[in-house]
Design a protein that fits this description.
By secondary structure, the chain is an all-alpha fold. Helix content is 69%, strand content 0%.
Length: 422
Amino acid sequence: MLYAAGLIFSAYTTSALGHQLIEIMVGFGIAGTGFGVVLGVVGRAASDKNRSLALGLTTAAGSFGQVVGPPLAQALLNVMHWSSVFMVFAGMIMICLLCLPFMKTQARATKAEIEESLGAVLFRAVRDPNYLMIFIGFFSCGFQLAFVTAHFPALVTEICATIRPDSLLARLGVDTTAELGALSIGVIGLFNIVGTIVAGALGDRYRKKSLLAMIYAGRTLIAVWFILMPVTPTTVLVFSVIMGSLWLATVPLTSGLVAYFYGLRYMGTLYGLVFLSHQLGSFFGVWLGGTFYDQFGSYTIVWWVGVGTGVLSTLVHLPIKEERRPAASTALSGQADCLPSRDRPPASCRKLTSASTPARLRIDPKMKGRVPRPAAVSARIWSRSTSTCGASSILLTTSISDFSSAGPFLRGMSAPMHTSMI
């Protein structure tokens, strides 16, 4: 409701200062409906086996909004004033309220996680080098995504070669580089749907830190290739396809890694703190893009800054030790959580005796051969932990949230975003 109210008030505001103040409401609304909150709900609802894939599907739903939002916003702007478009988007956001009654999940926190306070888990996280490396690495994701979203259409408009009249793009109605710039954002969103689902599925099978390092390396390489090549309609589309495939592929892996390290009870808070780094990167990506363009008349310098952040994120994920972090109460009692891990389990898990084994993991010898192993008992399938309506509600809410936030960017697509516009 705060998000929709911000758009409604913006539609009736006439001063630049008023818009800037009201956008604070929009910012809080986006934060409350964005990945930091939604992925926390999905993470608790999904099983260990399918969590990464579930997070990827949810992220892909947001990408669908990015694909549909800009073209529809442009179509609405052709027939009505931009303030009316804001009212339409506000109405679509309010529709999401109808989905809230269906968004139910079952608690999956272990006894040790329930006993540990929020302050204790935050204290452990900020002292953990692995968590800090995830925090630092996510900065690059925000920097690159925000810069490309805000400034790439203007960059294409300025320096891309003209579109030939006999080309396929021209036959599809894309005649100018400004239209190509808008199309590139849609292409990125389209291929992002595939990329996030694939990344989520791979995260259930392979080390997430390795996948993250490869994704950041891939972004860096395609960015270097694009800036060194002549900018033509072909290179723009190739860049959009590859960058789109890697666009939000980091989100299900990063959020899944946080849940894997620290459990599910405080996943939303811990991932929200990591997402702060992403948003800081987003701010600097947009701000430096406009500032450097005003000073130097091009985006070349800030583009190379983005390449540098990509290299940093690639390197910082390599030393991460991907293994579970037992809750403080578990570590003090000497009873570590022995759920399966891709890494070698700690010695305390291998040395557990039947006397020290937690009651929730004990198996009656008489039931041998008829009782599933502990991991199967604790891991429930996604479809059992939340109803089909609940899953669909989460996906719809995420899609409309990104849909509504994508449209207003069109007002600045046809011209470079200068510092005065930020």
